[in-house]
Amino acid sequence: MMETTKTKGGHPALQTGVCLAICLAVVLAWFSPWWAGGKVMAPLDLANEMMQPWRGDGEPGVAKNHFVADNITVLLEYRIFAAESYKNEGWVGWSDLTYGGTALYADTMALFDDWTMQLHRWFDFWTAWHLGLMGQVLIAAFGMVLLLRGRGTNTLWSVAGGLIYAANSQFVTWINHRFALGPFCWAPLIIWSIDQYRAGKRWSWGVVPVFIALAFLGGTLQHVAIVALAVVVCWGSEAWEGWKVSRRNWVNQVSLLGRYAVWGLLGSGLAALMLIPCTDALMTSNELGLHTGLHGHADDSIYPQGLLQPLFNLAAYPFQVFPSVLGRCDSMDVLKLFKSNLFFVAYIGFLPTLIGFLAIGRRQTGTLERSLILVGLLLPLTPAVRFLYQRLFLLFLLGATMAFAGYMSRSSDEARRRLCVVAAWTSGVLAAGWLIGSAGMAWFGGDFLASLQDRVMAIGGDSSFGGAHAWMEMRVSNFIGDLFIWSPQQWVPLTLLALGLWGLGWTASKSLGRRRTGSVMLFSAILLEVTCFATRWITWSDPGEYPLFPVTPEVAALREHVDRDGRVTVLIHPTEHMSRTPFLPNTLSPYGIEAITGYGSVVPDGMILPNETPGDAKKLGRFGVSHLLTWPGNPDVPLEWREVWSSPSMELYANTLALPRYVAFRTDSQKDGFLAGEGRSFLPVRETSGKQNTRELEVPAGSKWVRIAENQAEGWEYRSSETSSWRPVLRAEDASMLMELEPKVAGMTVRMRYRPPLRLLGLKITGGSIMLMLLGTLWVVLRGRVGVCPSRPIPSVT
Fold it and tell me: What is d(CA 374, CA 353) in angstroms, rounded to the nearest whole number?
């Protein structure tokens, strides 16, 4: 047996401190391109080389990773908006920059309630961006170290577990989105705090719901569901262990279920400030039939990619132990052949991933580890994948990390020797066959490779970036080159695989020196494996060469022609929209230019649906759309739009039928005729505050109604004097804002404010949950005992 709980010559607390220090050093090294090299972890090359208008004239260039395009079109905009909102108003609420007005704070993709978002209050943009990312990676590593140390794992494999979990493939592939990292960096700490409570640490009772809430706040609603599923797995595992010990003790089982239910309810209550408004926004989008996560992409199947999807997905599982064969972000996506894509790789190094799979049938595997692995592998094969996608692999990666660390700490020499022999022979035979095949292709496969290259180019030409010919040629060339075993894409991870197997074999040696050397070799191999995987995916950009949303001539033209009360619509290229459409939805918002279009996980129930009649000048004109922009040479621009500016990247048109966004009416008939699309009799209104969540309107004398071409939403209130009471903004027939006034001889200033009721309700529930959590913790501590369901004892470092 390998050493489990103690390393000679050190106190357990000191050893744990050393583990955390090593993790800190490695994470700092991972982020050194930022703090030492001045680069930023964002795909700015994608915008500046391949997207309009930032790439400018000529053919699109080459970018490393197009998978993370959402970072350019959505996620950076959210953070920029948050930073501006904190600076100007102190909070994130309403945004008039997309969709014609939306409750942006309730967008589940934006993660506005995650702790990392608050860093934008105090730091410049890129400092806040990277401190948040680095903090989340450290939380993941530290949490796993504490969890493994608490379960009796020795120092080396606790550090290994912490680092491979912090760099697992789901964290890496979604790191720019933070969808996986944000919630699941807290998952080890949730389990650790549960373990602490089971071990008799009564204070940890209240820590469990806090970590659950932090995990909820860090993710989308999809990831909230997966975190909740992880907690359910913890309950099920503990209940099963208790059932095996005392099968007739139903009282303990009910008590256990009650404890987990209280933890879950408190965690949900603490996160209610996000959960309530985001859930409501999701359901609104679902009622409109616009949320693909609930409706899926397959009209005639319970699976997004058809009934055969689970079989194809299952066939891809063996390749997860060596994902280099599945392609890379600057090559082709081989996982698409398995009805998946490279976003859904489940990898923590060759041996840790392999041991994760094998742990299912290993008798010594813990109940929790096995349960997490099984749920994480089986649920993606069920219709649940339609709603949660293969993001469920996060459960597998969590369980596999724990299983690997436990295996290396507690497995017998014979077990490790047997695994090494079988894995080495299998890998060797496959590598030999690959080498022979590579040699055959190099010598005799010229025609086949040329034909393959032509076919792949033809397929890729139909993609949204298909017009980027140099980029497509690079990807296809990389794909063809990576078919050979001597490609760096293959021989580097193969070398690390061999080093890891060599080290694993030596850990079973009778020589103490070899055992220690083998452990270091294996540790180094898996650390380098996950680092290699990350470097091939993550883009570090030079902001000097690739600035963040620079002011181009197109931006200057928009600012000149579209005033603060104007709004634009965008005609999107039907096939090559990513490379030819200027200013994809949301990308105008960093410049403060408002759009009727947008892109996100939820949409408002407002004046117009996304991309509904994007060129209808009359309809859009009544919604305050003053200009249209599109790619040069678009033949489908309606005649009502008059060209006012053009460049090789963009054409800008003015709407000859545009009406002001803010108008007033003296009579009901004027208002009714206007809303019916017949009348054009109105008075001009001027908005003077320039803020998102408050407005000040200068209204002409004699006005009875004010209409704003902006989506009406609950929470908007107004009053016409300092002494009058606040009244809710009305919803017009076209879903715009409408306010009834008492006509006055003199003009008046109408003040508006946004106080979303669901946000206020969520804050009240969060505040109440904090009080209940504190009182509950105090009661548990003072009660003097821990309600533990009889089960196997939790090992601890003593």
Answer: 13
pLDDT of residue 458: 74
CA dist 489 and 32 (Å) reads 23
- Map out the domains of the chain as residue ranges: 186-283+759-790, 662-755
8 A C-beta contact, residue 366 and residue 358 = no
d(CA 602, CA 297): 16
Please answer whether residues 158 and 145 qualify as being in contact, where contact means their C-beta atoms are separated by less than 8 angstroms: yes
CA neighbours closer than 13 Å in the CB half-sphere of residue 590: 21
**What is the identity of the amino acid at 423?**
A
Token pair 């091939």 is found at: 536
Which strands make up the sheet holding 641-646, listed edge to edge? 568-570, 627-630, 651-655, 641-646
| pLDDT tens per residue, range 648-705 | 999 999 999 999 999 999 999 999 999 988 878 899 999 998 899 999 999 999 999 9
Mean pLDDT of the chain: 91
Cα dihedral: 294, 296, 299, 303 (round 10): -110
Q: Tell me the one-letter amino acid at 58.
A: G
Residue 692 backbone phi and psi in degrees, to 5? -85, -45
| Burial environment of residue 225 by CB neighbours within 10 A (0 to 12, 13 to 18, 19 or more) | middle
Q: Residues, the chain, total?
A: 798
Instruction: State residue 454's pLDDT score.
Output: 80
Is the pTM of the predicted complex or chain greater than 0.85? Answer: yes
Q: Which of 332-336, 516-520, 607-611, 743-747 has the highest mean pLDDT?
A: 516-520
Beta partners for residue 463, in sequence order: none
Find the Cα–Cα–Cα–Cα dihedral 19, 22, 23, 28, rounded to 10°: 160
Q: Which helix (H) or strand (E) holds 630?
A: strand 627-630
CA angle 708, 714, 715 (to 5 degrees): 90
Q: Which residues contact 221 (CB under 8 A, 6 or more apart)?
A: 108, 275, 278, 279, 282
Cβ neighbours for 301, distance < 8 A, ≥ 6 positions apart = 307, 309
Q: Tell me whether residue 516 is exposed, middle or buried, using C-beta atoms within 10 angstroms of its C-beta: 0 to 12, 13 to 18, 19 or more.
A: middle
Q: Where are the beta strands (DSSP E) in 631-678?
A: 641-646, 651-655, 662-665
What letters, b where the CB count within 10 A reaches 16 and e where it falls short, cover 621-656?
bbbbbbbbbbbeebeebeebbeeebebebbbbbbbe
